[in-house]
Design goal:
alpha+beta, binds protoporphyrin IX containing FE, Cytochrome p450, globular, nucleus, about 500 residues, 10 strands
Length: about 500
């Protein structure tokens, strides 16, 4: 290690400790901070609580410190809220005050310091980006334009599974095929493009770079440099890798997709026809009008890659696992589809609202296996007040949405996968945030605009699989292993399940 750097760091650390003690003494005089474990200088609570602040660990802290508590992670404040009333305050009543996103050195690289939409602060830029993205992505017109594409993609999945003799005997890891389907669902909307097979080299390049971006952004490895700024010089190597991945990824979006579409637009007149436009054509129009720049265009593509594909895929994967582990629910769902549509008549999007049990299965999956259990972290740009406590400016605010939807004080036997609850005691609860106990997509200004696409994609996919196959655990296993992984950013299944898929004969 560079000795001079080490010496400088130790001197810096010493002064940081003195400054931290003085600042914390000054601050505690002025601020009434939320309860929480007692912090030590410089490290705060970090050494006590560790890195893995997933939804379950944070639930345990909530039981100890209350519905709102504060953790000091080095120099950063982390406020966790765990009641529907406080969630309402953060996301709705004080939605402007708490409507920003936290930034850190790694996210700054991947978002070009907030030139995107998902991770930018609440303000003019966010409003403009959200407006520009709405028409091409988040309207019912988009659903109607692309739903046949989604139906076609899942029909290909069904066909491929039927062709593979392994699927009906030893089983297959269905997720791999569904991942291709989800990329195709979103790349059709963005660029009117699809990938032919799991072996497509461009698809694999894209998948690898997206995977690497998620791993680097969600790793705990860089926490020390984020929590204790004086240690940041040691992150140089890590940040250089992030910069390289970011560069390669944006270049790939540009060279293979955005520029290709620009060329096509220059050679055809058909772009005048609104109905043939895909999302990027609308976004490029906004660029031409000078509303956004070329980088913003690429960050929009980046955001859709991050926010849309894996989230929906995790939810599909959880839904399938629950249906395999609850054959009686799977059968009830199949019976509903058979009786409403007729045996073998393939589900399409317009039928989804005639299938209430399918919708209840989706809601229950999103409740018990919430894909983003702490929402995307919120942040207050300025000092704020919450339930009588002071929240220092730039605190990271986590809403433990998973606990809101799984708290036995407010839900009947929440640990059970029971779609029927949405016909019985929870019949008024919808996924759009009409009840602050159930926020799988958040609610308010920063809520998920993709809900309008995610719900029909989930419905078409789960519906088609159940109506075409009997879904079973692999030979010798009575249930799938549903051990969870993650939770701090996203909640997924630890081991991608092998599933036996017996085709039904019609
Ligand atoms: C089952 C699938 C999905 C789930 C569970 C989900 C969930 C969420 C959640 C919890 C948030 C954060 C809300 C908050 O911070 O208060 C979010 C934000 C977002 N989601 Fe989704 N999402 C899904 C699918 C999608 C899809 C398909 C798209 C796009 C096509 C999308 C685009 C976005 C965007 C752009 C944001 C950021 C909104 C903002 O910051 O203003 N999501 N999503």
């Amino acid at each position: 290690m560079d000795l001079l750097l080490l010496e400088k760091t130790l001197i810096g650390l010493f002064f940081a400790i003195i400054v931290a003690i003085v600042v914390s003494k000054l601050r505690s005089k002025n601020f009434k901070l939320p309860p929480g474990p007692i912090p030590v200088p410089v490290f705060g609570n970090w050494l006590q609580v560790g890195d893995d602040l997933n939804h379950r660990n944070l639930t345990e802290y909530a039981k100890k410190f209350g519905d709102m508590f504060l953790l000091r992670m080095g120099q950063r404040n982390l406020v966790v809220v765990s009641s529907p009333e406080l969630a309402k305050e953060v996301l709705h009543t004080q939605g402007v005050e708490f409507g920003s996103r936290t930034r850190n050195v790694v996210f700054d690289i991947f978002t070009g310091k907030g030139q995107d939409m998902v991770f930018t602060v609440y303000g003019e830029h966010w409003r403009k980006m959200r407006r520009i993205m709405t028409v091409p992505f988040f309207t019912n017109k988009v659903v109607q334009q692309y739903r046949r594409g989604w139906e076609d993609e899942v029909a290909h999945v069904v066909e491929d599974v039927k062709k593979n003799p392994e699927s009906a005997t030893n089983g297959i890891v269905l997720r791999k095929r569904l991942q291709l389907m989800m990329y195709n669902n979103m790349y059709r909307i963005m660029f009117d493009r699809r990938f032919e097979s799991e072996d497509d080299p461009l698809f694999n390049k894209l998948k690898a770079l997206n995977g690497e971006r998620s791993r680097l952004a969600q790793s705990f490895e860089y926490n020390y440099g984020d929590f204790i700024p004086i240690l940041r010089p040691f992150l140089r190597g890590y940040l250089n890798i992030c910069k390289e991945i970011k560069q390669r990824r944006l270049q790939l979006f540009k060279d293979y997709f955005v520029d290709e579409r620009k060329k096509l637009a220059n050679t055809t007149k058909s772009m005048d026809n609104n109905s043939l436009k895909c999302a990027i054509d609308h976004i490029l129009e906004a660029e031409q009008k000078g509303e956004i720049n070329e980088d913003n265009v690429l960050y929009i593509v980046e955001n859709i890659n991050v926010a849309a594909i894996e989230t929906t895929l995790w939810s599909i994967e959880w839904g399938i696992a629950e249906l395999v582990n609850h054959p009686e629910i799977q059968k009830k769902l199949r019976d509903e589809i058979d009786s409403v549509l007729g045996v073998g008549v393939q589900i399409t999007e317009p039928e989804l609202n005639k299938l209430p049990y399918l919708q209840a299965v989706i809601k229950e999956t999103l409740r018990l296996r919430m894909a983003i259990p702490l929402l995307v972290p919120h942040m207050n740009l300025h000092d704020a007040k919450l339930a009588g406590y002071d929240i220092p400016a730039e605190s990271k605010i986590l809403v433990n949405a998973w606990w809101l939807a799984n708290n036995p004080a407010t839900w009947k036997k929440p640990e059970e996968f029971r779609p029927e609850r949405f016909f019985e005691e929870e019949k008024h609860v919808e996924a759009n945030g009409n009840d602050f106990r159930y926020l799988p997509f958040g609610v308010g200004r920063r809520s998920c605009p993709g809900i309008i696409l995610a719900l029909p994609i989930l419905g078409i996919t789960l519906g088609r699989l159940v109506q075409n196959f009997e879904l079973l655990p692999p030979p010798g296993q009575s249930k799938l292993d549903t051990t969870e992984k993650g939770g701090q950013f996203s909640l997924h299944i630890l081991k991608h399940s092998t599933i036996v898929m017996k085709p039904r004969s019609f």
